[in-house]
Amino acid sequence: MTSTIAPARETVRAADRVAAARRHVSMGETLAQTMTMAWRAVKKMRRNPEQFFDVVLQPILFTAMFAYVFGGAIAGDVESYLPLMIPGILAQTVLTTCMVTGTQLREDMEKGVFDRFKSLPIARIAPLAGPMVADLLRYATAATLTFAMGLLMGYRPGGGVAGVLAAILLAVFTGWSLAWIFTWVGTIAKSAQAVQGISMMILFPLTFLSNAFVPIGTLPGWLAAFVRVNPVSHLVTAARDLANGALVSGEVAWTLLACLIVIAVFAPLSVRSYKRHI
Amino acid sequence: MRAVIDSATMLRRRLTHIWRYPSLVLTFAGVPVVFLLLFVYVFGGTMGAGIGGDRAAYVGYLTPGIMVTTIAGAAQGTAISVATDMAEGIVARFKTMAIARVSVLTGHVLGAMVQTFIAIAMATLVAVLVGFRPSASGLGWLGVVGVLAMFTFAITWLSVALALVSKSVTTASNLPMPLLVLPFLGSGFVPTESMPAGLRWFAEHQPFTPVIETLRALLDGRPAGSGLVSAAVWSAVIALAGYLWARRLYNR
Predict the structure, then answer these.
(1) Transmembrane stretches, by residue range (chain A) (predicted)?
(2) CA nearest A99: which of A207, A215, A261, A235?
(3) Interface contact B196-A78, CB threshold 8 A
(4) I want to staple A105 with a disulfide (CB 3.0 to 4.6 A). Which of A41, A46, A186, A210 is the partner?
(5) d(CA A10, CA B90)
(6) Rounded distance, CA A260 to CA A278, Å?
(7) Is there a contact between B17 and B114 (Cβ–Cβ < 8 Å)?
(8) Chosen from A58, A70, A230 to mutate, greatest number of chain B CBs within 10 A
């Protein structure tokens, strides 16, 4: 009995010794290792195309459903609703997509692949930051599909190509920033299902209790007060200003500031929690 | 007579499950309640204006749609419980016992109807709390219960068949999902007149719309008219198709 346990203990000690003896990793090496991990995540996406189902299906289904089912009732006709709705769907899609980051991180941690990374002479943050870099591809896909779907349905953004690109970039950056929250949740939650549940509890009120689908003026007073301070509302308004009028309003600045605050708080929290749990 | 006694026993088994795991009922009542609150408070202002009224008028318009959405949501729960029984092997044991074969499925269906009605009652209570004021007479309420029972029975048999055709519990939980979309693609949340031509045609000719319109008329104190006949025909067709399909799959 003891003879089978002893080698296992030795292996763990050996892994710890390797980790302890690891030399200092430079900034350049950290970047290179992060990109290697990002490439690993991209390859995983390529081999599991179902990871793209939410990215592809959600923009198409939500855009079609909200426009055709509710467009007439909310704005009189579908075309009039699109300038209000498309930036809202953009925000919702990118934010829902970034939720997956935490779930996949938790799954990787459960599989024990991070224990292997721990024994490698690489920067601790690389396995964490790599998938987040790869996820930029998913956010960009979701955002582009949302606008493509809108264009197919008759949306003609007044901001032109530059305005639309700026709105997409802002949404992608916001998604990447908020993904740090879900990454942190991924490192502290007990299971992948728990991550999904917690993430939904955070995202559902933020996306639907915003100005994404209806003007703030139509909401009851108490709800309008929350919607005005909801960071998603700032993103939606900023995306609307950019896409519909190529206008870099104060909302863009507020959104970027909120993103930087989230990164400043949750990136260190995620790294610390991740280091403690592996 | 034997089939009735055995079905009653299986119903008691299902009710015991419901009693021991009330979280299931809460889960399936929870989704329609979230939809109700979301549509009343977030979309209610604009939707109310769209139907020529205000938020309060929209609550009255929305509630029948929420009732039917609850039925569609509960169908998922039925599919999960039937598929779980199949996967755990208890059904294989029942098949070796000297009981009426149909009783296992009938017990599930009747139990699911009880579960669905509890969920509908909870959703309706929340609707009343947010301003739903029906003007139905006693006879009207009887009609509402009848229409709901008829449609619940039909959708439940369909969900049992979907569970039996599934290879796993996960598949069984996903297969009834499209049913949740049908109230949206009908008159559940917005009038069909506000939809584009193609979608409007589909919305007016799918089974959920006559059921919702009948409930709306009865709760409003208006005569149900031809909508009631359409609702009854659709319910009968779905129930019969679901029952025959489920029986064939079960006896396989």
Answers:
(1) 52-75, 81-101, 136-155, 161-182, 194-214, 252-271
(2) A207
(3) yes
(4) A186
(5) 46
(6) 27
(7) no
(8) A70
Going by C-beta distance under 8 Å and a sequence separation of 6 or more, which residues neighbour residue A25? A33, A121, A122, A123
pLDDT in tens, A164-216: 999 999 999 999 898 988 888 888 887 886 887 888 778 878 888 898 988 88
Tell me the CA distances in angstroms from A157 to A162, A174, B152, one per residue in order: 10, 21, 45
Query: What is residue A22's DSSP assignment?
Result: P
The whole-angstrom separation of Cα B69 and Cα B143 is 18
Nearest to B159 by CA among B226, B236, B245: B245
A7 lies in some domain: no
Q: Is residue A198 part of a domain?
A: yes
Cβ-Cβ pairs closer than 8 A, A with B, add up to 53
**Residues of chain A with C-beta less than 8 angstroms from the C-beta of B42:** 208-209, 213-214, 219, 223
The mean-pLDDT minimum among B56-60, B157-161, B171-175 falls in B171-175
Tokens 């399909």 belong to: B245
CB A259 within 8 Å of CB A174: yes
Residue A14 lies in a domain: no
- The rounded distance, in Å, linking the Cα atoms of A139 and B161 is 38
CA dist A136 to A101, A142, A166, Å?
11, 10, 15
One-letter amino acid at A70 equals F
**Under 8 Å between Cβ of A128 and A183:** yes
Minimum mean pLDDT range among A127-141, A156-170, B92-106: B92-106
pLDDT tens across B35-65, in order?
Answer: 899 899 998 888 887 777 777 889 999 999 9
Q: Which of A218, A232, A236 to substitute to test the interface with B, most B CBs within 10 Å?
A: A218
CB atoms A219 and B50 under 8 Å:
no
d(CA A74, CA A139): 28
Query: A111 is in which domain, residue-wise?
Result: 23-277
- Contact between B43 and A74 using a beta-carbon 8 Å cutoff: yes
CA distance to A131, A132, A255, B56, B167, per residue, from A185 (Å): 15, 14, 22, 39, 33
Q: What are phi and psi of B100, to 5 degrees?
A: -60, 130
Domain count, chain A: 1
Alpha carbon B165 to its chain centroid, in Å, reads 20
